[in-house]
Amino acid sequence: MPPPLPDRPERAKRQPQRVVDSVAGRIQGGLLKPGERVPSEPELMRELGVSRSVVREAMSRLQAGGMVETRQGVGTFVLAPPAARPLLGVAGQDLQLRQVFSMLELRVSVESDAASLAASRRSDAHLAAMREALDAFDAHRRAGAGTAEDDFRFHALIAAATGNEYFEEVMGCLGGATIRCHGSAAQVALGAGPAGGPRFGEPRTSLEAGKAVAQAEHEAIYEAIHRGDPAAARAAMFMHLNNSRERLRRLAE
Q: In which domain of life is the source organism classified (predicted)?
């Protein structure tokens, strides 16, 4: 026996979305290009079998989504997509300290929440991978080697443990850009350090001290996540990234 048809109020709610899907599909598929006019209200009414109010509601939704604009007395036109922001492309760039400061400021908020969620959602596999990253960081630190990749992996694993792919995407961008950045002062502040030891003229003691502090802060984050304590994990990550920013500020003076 077929399922009963939805009642009229439910169908009425869905009609504007049907128009939205139809017009948006044409825009995304290239049938309607930026600057071109969207079919008029009467045309959409005839084509889709809906009322004028339904079409107007759909156009309002498309305007709110930034896909079209309505010009009074002229019609509705397709808007060009917003220019791509550079954020997701910064991971492979050389960054100025100002940019690293700004990204660390954003990371404080994003990764504190990520650590809190990870404490609630992490699996044994996540914990084992985090422990492995921390042990590798410590081994490379003691050997005087670069720790940037271990540092990044630890933070990326926390993002993965949230179960939210968008935390992973943001961490891959911001963390990859700041942890792997080429500015030596930033690397000391973040406790990462360049692969192969300090650059010419850099005191090894400053690199070693930065890495030792970062290791201790990472351990505090890990222990809170291991205990399943979201509040402690959030606080530990907040402290770690704020301390990183403060270390960077002092080195940049």
A: Bacteria
